[in-house]
Design brief:
Low-confidence stretches: 1-17, 116-122
Strand content: 25-35%
Shape: globular
Strand order of the largest sheet: 4-3-2-1-9-8-7-6-5
Largest sheet: 9 strands, antiparallel
Structural class: alpha/beta
Number of helices: 11
CATH architecture of the largest domain: 3-Layer(aba) Sandwich
CATH superfamily of the largest domain: Alpha/Beta hydrolase fold, catalytic domain
Helix content: 25-40%
Number of strands: 18
Mean pLDDT: 88
CATH class of the largest domain: Alpha Beta
Distance between the termini: 25 Å
Radius of gyration: 22 Å
Length: about 475
Amino acid sequence: MNRLGTLFFLLAASLVAADITGKWDFVATVGVGQEMKMDLNLAREAGKLMGTMSARGNTVTLTDVAQNGNELTFKLPIGGMPYDIKMTLAGEAMKGTFSAPTGMTGDVRATRPAAAATTEQIPPPKPIPTVETKVETGMLGGSHFRIDIPANHNGGLVVYCHGYGGGGKFDEKPLGQLYQVFLNAGFAIAQAGYSRGGWAIKEGIEDTAALTRYYINKYGKPKRTVVLGHSMGGILTLALIEKFPELFDAAMPICGPLDVSLDFIQKRAFDLLVVFDYYYPGVLGSPVKISPQVQLKKEYLPELEKILAADSRKKAALQKFGGFASEKEVAIGIAFFASVTRELMERAGGNPFDNRNTVYIGGEDDVAINRGVKRYASDPKAVEYVKVYYTPVGRLERPVLAIHNVYDPVVPAWSTNSYVELARETGADKFFVQRWSTHGGHCNVKPDQHLHAFEDLLKWQATGTRPEAGEQK
């Protein structure tokens, strides 16, 4: 599930040949009336344009900031995935678009604050240095891959698992700030694109394990190998460390649903769609046969937002049931979860979810909801597919340090807590530590938090000193 909360962070810009350094008021528009306001700060150091985007107390460093005449482009990496922004300067304003790895698109604009001329410029934090690497790209068993070996290679390897969607062919441009954390530490990085997109648990497990073996055969066995990933890549990380302890020495799942996939997707996606269908019947088509036009794209979101806005009471009730922090997240959440559920049902060959015995709670009127929602039986073959890909077993032989945001609109924190109990039941809790981050949004864990957690994990693996659970600094 790569990467919805991503969507709630939306995106930013820098500028052109004119002096564009300083603070900008930035707005991203996803659909009708859905505006997200942020602060953009731009600065130059040694002639290089850099910037940060801030919203809700969170700050993200922009990468690949490039200026060509009046055209500006940059990437906002969140959860290991790049969001592309393109803007054009016109006087003291900028306009443009963003596109997300999920296929979602939207408009962006930026203007100078009224007091910009007399306000001291606030430079963005210094980016993590970019390490020179030897890059290998190719295809392995239908999956594109990329391997980066830094000049300061210490013999270690990080195997990275990406989240929902994404994949495809890799280019050879320098990796983003997230990856530089591990390259600066001297670790090589190997990434598999997976031979199929979507809920690619089967392909992700097979292709990532195959790439790890390929690396060992070509470059030699690493001194230590750490597998890590974000969102869907988090459950892949857990599956890989459970299945292949001979390949991996430690694991760091980040913002991943560390739960039985069948249970997590039903509770977070399917049940939400069932309740949406109760409030807005027919919009989806059906929760078990979702119309193809219901998807997370700029062309459809305005239509869905109008439907939701037609009854503010129903929209508020749906927001409450879904646990969304703002009403702006409701349409995006419904569209995203509809896309995920439809794709998973197509992949599994039927409906894997059974809500005939589900008691729905947390809405405006739980009695009315339980009387009014439609009930569906599951397809046994589809159930079996989702159970296999993936049901955690709680058998660990290697250290696992997980990180999750307290608020995550895509993968709520409750989805990770079940693994704590599972590990305790199997006696593997000595190999599992879970930490939490205060930053809101999906996979919004900062580069320095990645680094500090990674350092603790390496120390744990090397010395046996188990780190403390709690807040990730």
